[in-house]
Design a protein that fits this description.
Layout (H helix, E strand, L loop, with lengths): L1 E3 L11 H12 L4 E4 L1 H8 L7 E4 L3 H7 L3 E4 L5 E6 L2 E7 L6 H5 L13 H6 L8 E4 L4 E4 L3 H7 L1 E2 L5 H7 L2 H13 L2 E2 L1 H9 L9 H12 L4 H10 L3 H4 L1 H7 L2 H13 L10 H18 L13 H10 L4 H12 L1 H4 L2 H6 L2 H8 L4 H10 L5 H13 L1 H29 L12 H6 L14
Parallel strand pairs: 3-6, 9-10
Antiparallel strand pairs: 1-8, 2-3, 2-7, 4-5, 5-6, 7-8
Helix pairs in contact: 8-10, 8-11, 14-15, 15-17, 17-21
Length: about 450
């Protein structure tokens, strides 16, 4: 174990709530540290977005000691602590499962085998994510030689990458994304293992691949990450449609150009419809512009794109609908004079189309509209904003009434059936719980 007296950044960079949680648990006698990405980012001069905490206290003890804390998870139980509009994850130090645990009927469920800080560090993925920091004692704890790798800007797996990547294949995508995010070199044996075991990604569930794809799209240069995914043979197991496209030199150059040209579509990186719309539109335009043997031009309605959105990217139904309608609206947005001749009811019908805003962003990014046309559509939307808000609120009220009606019916029946979870798009989330992509039966031209 290597210890250094001070991290490289001032204490002011640490969230006071996270500091307070650590201090409270330590005061009660439990070894507690900041852990993972926040420590890595502090050392790299990056303001952490999240502060995760690891402790010797078990979830029930954390819940008793820290106010506004809630135990979540089953396979991996941890505590979620809420402070204002923030939340902090507090996890008990874990260890690997031992042979004797498999025959012990009293063994815990899932990954809830609690251990020491060192055992916890060694079961994490990359050395740069295995560092602990004690903000009270101002001390960095390094059991996995993560600090030298941070200094050398190298991404290295903890343990044998051939074993660790097969344990959780999502580490392949996560590792590649982290290397591009931090501009780190991938250690040669890890890079070789990523290439060798790329097909293991087919065993991972679609929602986890979806999240990594979205995080790649949020990178400053996602084109380089996609290109390396292709070079390592990873992309054909994650987004086979895009892999087929990049397999042709002419299409590859066009796709990279389009991805860069249409990046202005994304004004809010938290909006998944914008991120997916950007990627889908870049692929669609590449298919249009590149050489093709098809008798008719490819469109967003083609089964290829429906499969891409549903089975490869794991897009929810509402996201597929927004992106599809946005692309279908593009010709309409070029005809401003037609819109002016419509009555207010028909104008409202166009404006309340769920793909309108994204469609306008796509049209502007593709230079389909003049400056005057773009200003016209924005002014028209602003003019009808009051009516659109009223329609949206009425739709929300109807949705709440339907939920209450379903719940009342379920209560009368004495069962949980008919209860709709109070989570936006919960049905779409559940839909992909255990999904893997279908095989590609048709490829882009």
């Amino acid at each position: 174990m290597e210890m250094t007296a001070k991290p490289r950044l001032h204490q002011d960079w640490i969230d006071p709530h996270a500091y307070g949680i650590v201090k409270a648990l330590q005061k009660s006698g439990y070894t507690t540290y900041l852990v993972g990405g926040c420590v890595r980012d502090l050392l790299l001069g990056i303001h952490p977005k999240d502060f995760d905490i690891a402790t010797m206290a078990v979830p029930q003890q954390v819940k008793r000691l820290i106010y506004m804390s809630y135990i979540i998870g089953k396979r991996f139980r941890l505590v979620l602590v809420k402070r204002d509009d923030q939340q902090f994850e507090v996890a008990t130090f874990r260890r690997e499962i031992r042979a004797e645990d498999l025959v012990d009927p009293t063994s815990p469920v899932g990954d809830n085998f609690f251990g020491t800080p060192e055992e916890d560090a060694r079961r994490r993925d990359f050395t740069i994510n295995g560092l602990f920091y004690d903000p009270v004692a101002d001390q960095l704890i390094d059991y996995v030689n993560g600090l030298p790798d941070i200094e050398a800007r190298i991404l290295r797996m903890i343990g044998d990458p051939n074993i660790r990547l097969c344990e959780d294949p999502i580490r392949i995508l996560r590792g590649l994304r982290l290397a591009h995010k931090l501009r780190f070199a991938i250690e040669p044996s890890l890079r070789e293992a990523m290439q060798k075991h790329a097909s293991e990604l087919l065993k991972s569930v679609l929602p986890r691949r979806r999240e990594e794809i979205l995080k790649i799209l949020r990178l400053p240069e996602p084109d380089l990450a996609f290109l390396e995914c292709f070079d390592l043979g990873i992309l054909k197991y994650v987004i086979p449609t895009l892999h087929d496209l990049l397999s042709r030199d002419t299409h590859r150059d066009l796709f990279l150009q389009n991805l860069n040209a249409f990046q202005s579509i994304v004004t809010d990186p938290a909006d998944t419809t914008q991120l997916f719309g950007w990627l889908i539109f870049s692929i669609l335009q590449t298919a249009h512009e590149g050489p093709s043997e098809r008798a008719t031009p490819i469109t967003i309605e083609d089964p290829i794109f429906q499969r891409l959105m549903r089975d490869e990217l794991g897009m929810y139904k509402f996201e597929q609908s927004v992106v599809t309608k946005a692309i279908q609206l593009l010709p309409t947005l070029e005809r401003t004079e037609d819109f002016k001749r419509r009555g207010e009811r028909r104008q409202l019908a166009l404006m309340k189309n769920e793909g309108f805003k994204l469609g306008l962003q796509l049209a502007v990014a593709e230079h389909r509209l003049t400056v005057e046309q773009a200003l016209f559509w924005r002014a028209a939307h602003q003019k009808l904003a009051g009516e659109l808000e009223k329609i949206a609120e009425e739709a929300k009220v109807k949705k709440r009434r339907r939920r209450r009606a379903r719940k009342s019916t379920a209560d009368l029946n004495g069962s949980g059936e008919g209860v709709t979870p109070d989570t936006d798009h919960a049905d779409e989330v559940a839909e992909f719980a255990e999904t893997t992509p279908d095989s590609q039966t048709e490829s882009l031209p």
